[in-house]
Design brief:
The chain is α/β, with parallel strands linked by helices. 39% of the residues lie in helices and 18% in strands. β10 and β11 form a beta hairpin. α11 packs parallel to α12.
Length: 419
């Protein structure tokens, strides 16, 4: 194990000790580092579903238009370094190690050593400032109000993707409370709000400041499936999108409004380049088709809302086809409701035995699943060898472990799929 791998292992293992929400420690840490956040411009993104896809689309468009854009996202699917990107490229191992040592040295002067996410956030800010990023796509880790990313001053633009019940232990028991926590990233600047459930939208409107731009599903006029993309018509104009899943149309609405606001702010965005970027954008682990015969799909849907959207996307693209579904889930998610949303596309259900501290107990998942009347079996992730039409879903953390195994089994070069 080289120095980079040891360092990442150290950071990741610290993250497994738990989380601590709050801004006091990250403010102290960044103060020791010269407050790099004050030299950057941000598009701050919070929500329950679609944050990663929204960032990926914006990243592709900005890069195609020659705007140097940083992106800070989590979790990673392939390599820890993908959390820190500039124009789509991961941070180098040398840069990560060098910046980690700077942050770690500052962290050790504090009375309380920062959390793993705070350390990562500081590294990202130093990296983006050092490289002179014109814009930073800044994704929250958990919630918004007390998330370490909310240490920034007023962002250029805020985005709230669809909100659903999640992390109730930290964010509140109701949709209204959770929406209020996430909407706290909105300050005195424009904010783009994706279509929301009424309770969530009411809470956002009540608590948020600034100019709110609320997108509406009625703007989506048509979604046409193609072999290599889907064409989405919004308010009379068609956009080719390289990301599959009809639910991506919701994310596209937010992206289009953000791009409109950026144009108003003077950022040079050419329509032809924007369309090219959207058509060519790819995102491993999101409705990712690894093989078409048999059909093998990976998707990181991790909560009932995401699984419902995934089911709708599969039915839109593949009609009444049913799948062997391989599923697991991290704790604090409503597995019963999520499984209910998957039922229309399940032929056989396999609960994955996934030995991870974050994973819900396999026995508990099996007990819930058997009450549906489905044919349920337990499979260790080391023994997963899909042979029929297959969907693997439930968590991006799960896919980060499974995807390399599946690619090896299918004899697919993973580097060719990174988009």
């Amino acid at each position: 194990m080289d120095e980079y791998e040891k360092t990442v292992q150290s950071v990741v293992s610290r993250g497994k000790f738990g989380m601590k929400l709050g801004l006091e420690n990250i403010r102290k840490l960044l103060g020791k580092l010269g407050n790099p956040q004050k030299d950057l411009k941000f598009i701050h993104i919070a929500g329950s579903n679609g944050k990663g896809s929204t960032v990926k689309m914006l990243e592709a468009v900005l890069t195609e238009n020659d705007i140097l854009a940083g992106a800070y996202t989590s979790p990673e699917l392939i390599d820890f370094r993908e959390r820190f990107r500039i124009s789509g490229d991961w941070i180098s191992k040398d840069d990560f190690l060098r910046l980690y040592k700077i942050v770690d040295k500052a962290a050790k002067t504090l009375s309380e050593y920062p959390t793993a996410f705070e350390i990562e956030t500081a590294i990202a800010l130093l990296y983006f400032r050092e490289k002179g990023c014109e814009l930073v796509l800044w994704e929250t880790g958990l919630g918004g109000r007390l998330d370490a990313t909310n240490v920034i001053d007023s962002p250029l633009i805020s985005v709230i993707t669809p909100i659903s019940l999640e992390h109730t232990k930290y964010l509140g028991e109701s949709l209204s409370q959770i929406a209020k926590e996430k909407a706290a990233i909105i300050k005195d600047s424009p904010a783009v709000i994706a279509p929301q459930q009424k309770e969530a939208l009411d809470s956002i409107l009540e608590s948020a400041e600034g100019s709110l731009y609320i997108t509406k599903t009625e703007w989506i006029e048509e979604i046409s499936e193609r072999e290599d993309r889907q064409d989405i018509t919004v308010n009379g104009k068609t956009y080719p999108l390289g990301l599959f899943g009809s639910f991506q149309a919701i994310n596209l609405l937010s992206v289009l409004k953000v791009l409109e606001l950026l144009k108003d702010l003077g950022y040079g965005l050419e329509d032809e380049k924007t369309l090219k970027a959207l058509k060519e954008v790819r995102f491993p682990g999101r409705f990712e088709v690894l093989r078409t015969d048999p059909l093998i799909i990976l998707d990181g849907a991790h909560n009932p809302h995401g699984l419902k959207s995934l089911t709708q996307g599969l039915k839109k693209r593949y009609g009444d086809k049913k799948f062997d579904v391989y599923l697991s889930q991290i704790k604090e998610k409503d597995f019963k409701e999520g499984l209910k949303n998957l039922l229309p596309i399940i032929k056989n259900l396999y609960i994955l035995n996934w030995e991870d501290k974050q994973a819900q107990k396999t026995s508990e998942l099996i007990e819930i699943a058997r009450k549906t009347g489905l044919n349920v079996r337990e499979v260790d992730i080391k023994d997963l060898k899909p042979k029929d039409d297959t969907l693997i879903t439930g968590s991006l953390y799960l896919l980060s472990e499974l995807r390399p195994r599946i690619l090896r089994f299918l004899e697919i070069d993973g580097d060719s799929l990174v988009g």
